[in-house]
Amino acid sequence: MLACKDYKFWFCTGSQDLYGDECLAHVAEHSKIIVKALNDSGILPYEIIWKPTLITNEVIRKTFNEANTDENCAGVITWCHTFSPAKSWILGLKELRKPLLHLHTQFNREIPYDTIDMDFMNENQAAHGDREFGHIFTRLNKSRKVIMGYWEDKDTQERIASWMRTAIGVIESSHVRVMRIADNMRNVAVTEGDKVEAQIKFGWEIDAYPVNEIADAVKDVAQGDIDALVEEYYDKYEILLEGRDEAEFRKHVAVQAQIEVGFEKFLEEKNYQAIVTHFGDLGALQQLPGLAIQRLMEKGYGFGAEGDWKTAAMVRIMKIMTQGMKNAKGTSFMEDYTYNLVPGKEGILQAHMLEVCPTIADGPISIKCQPLSMGNREDPARLVFTSKTGPAVATSLIDLGDRFRLIINDVECKKVEKPMPKLPVATAFWTPQPNLKTGAEAWILAGGAHHTAFSYDLTAEQMGDWAEAMGIEAVYIDKDTTIRNFKNELMWNEAAFRK
Asked: Of all residues in the chain, what percent are helix, strand and coil, respectively (each to 5)?
């Protein structure tokens, strides 16, 4: 399910014909060497494709429009090796619809003090050409990422790799389709929002389906498919009967298997990548989807509870951004529940009724079957585990009426002090940066939701770059946050993003 296109990134070098054919030959040779080195580094998650040097208005415009129409092109990397008159880029940049990284580098690492002459100066002047190029981007008020650094340095290569994942999130956003099962939870403000504006801004399609239409798909699942998936569950997870009859327990687990198969088939047939449910409208479903939703998230589907389509779409995008990442620690839907306010041990217990993605699990994953007061259905089976530790990012996309805002909070995930044997759900525990008091106050001042799209594998910079590319406001809550400055930032943003 998580599969996406075989994306590539185009490397476009800027120059002009003032210095003759020999200089242009060197420019092309140098850019090919850089592209090969980047591809051979083993650091980049996607391949870079070298493109002929851009030297005229016509060639620039043609190349960028070809990038627009190439479905496998996820973005463009530009570098002005020599001086490149910025007016030549205007029409191409105005028409470019793909993410752009301005790589500010140069072919040589060191000034060749003993041999440098004017020929060398004219040929190797990215410090000149990239500034000219950067000016026109600012004049056009277009979003782009700027990375300065030597192309052979690991740090530079890692930053390029990081931006590539953000670019994939931008491109894939226009392919996100969210299936809403029933509506939002009554009287809950934060799960609401302008779906038309979301499609304009992000490209998301958010469609509602009657709950019994998907319940019918669940009912039609073949018994053999159910039995096979139950066996997979029993092989993969620890079974915690906790005094329940084994045959009865298996029947409850089989209901979730049937929901998983039915939901996934329905999503695939209708081409949706994210789903929301609501415990208040379950129709003919026997249980609130728990284990089934957890497994679908693990496969790459986005999810939001209580009709929260914004978080569902963000979870999907963040999972796509982390696709293929080595040693990934996981991405999930999450919800703030309760605080620990003991000095020196402050933090927020994260969970949900059932639906937390097992990609974030640390250690064994168990299946439990416990009563659930909400939903008025039979006891649902769910996966239970505790999360990994370490730095992570929690995001909340909110609709402020006149604009969207993405709130991005750096958090530190920790182990809880003691086991919680009576809490039959998956959990995480984190302390927001810079500390619980400031982090929580800033989150509330920004209007942050109690639902988050959470990931160990993405950074605040990547999520902020995504928001910028989408043309929406982003605010950061991190180690440098103070309430005084944060309130001022919100006030300035109110003016800057006013329509």
From this structure: 40, 20, 35
